[in-house]
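Slide 14.
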Amino acid sequence: MFGPIIHVLGARPNFVKAAPVIAALDVEQAVIHTGQHYDEKMSEIFFRELGLPEPDVNLGVGSASHAVQTAALMVGLEREFTERSPGLVIVYGDVNSTIAAALVAAKMSIPVAHVEAGLRSFDPTMPEEVNRRLTDQLSDLCLVTSPEAIGHLAAEGVDVGRIHFVGNPMIDTLLKNMASFDVARVRAAYDLPDRYVLATMHRPANVDAPETAAALVRRLHEIADLADLVIPLHPRGRAVLLAAGLAGHQGVRILDPLGYIDFIAAVRGAAMVVTDSGGLQEETTILGVPCLTVRPNTERPITITHGTNRLVTFDELVPATRKALESPHGRAGTPPLWDGQAGPRIAEVIMRFIGE
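Slide 15: predicted structure.
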């Protein structure tokens, strides 16, 4: 008898991607929340807003170094997999919860499905890049969100029979909730100005080193000279950015982390977005909001060729912001299979795998 399907979720993007997959699967399922994101606005509120079932267990690992956090995840997940005897483990994205679950499942001879397989930044200094590559090598099903990922997996020797182009379940969630992204309501709720730039920053390369964070803050203050800057501040990097003087400009509006509905409504209402997030590059592509990504590379190049996204350095950030504010460009197009039906396609692949 085939055991239950276990979804392992650890961070905000995982929840958004998992919701349509869980809804589309009509089999026994369980959700393990690892607690990698432990702030209420970064985790529990997403379950409520996205209609996700309450997690069957919360491992509560919290924050730590990569080694300590991943080790704690593996210990907790091994215990849960042993007790639940899953027939398939589904992992999402590229966080430490993803690689920890894939490693434990592979060592226990449990099949693994990886949603968002094949994305590559080709930057080995990014912890997420390490997680992506290893997870794909361990996965029985590589569920691909964009065409270029197929080539990446093939180049790494992944058998074509394991690769399935299904589309982007994060976009399923976005399209399903579009009517809830009320810009007027979120402006009133958080006292946002009519015109603002929204920024999110949390990547280690941008916020871990005090001197780098200080250089970033100087650029953000220059952006605030051009337009009000609204920053829902991620727990990661919060202390360093505040210590670098982020709050020391009257045009900077710092918010606590927002729930999914309020956050995307704030993005929708922004004149433009400045970020180092992966998922936000995708969401702005569909919303048609100009996006500047403060990174030297992206694992989502389709957001550049089909969307509103552009990569910028620290030195390019302010001039690019000025240009975008003066002449915002519209959406170039919708990437293939970003149509709101990725969840059902993933469910179809999984059910076929179970049948075989």
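Speaker note: Residues 304 and 310 are 6 Å apart (CA to CA).
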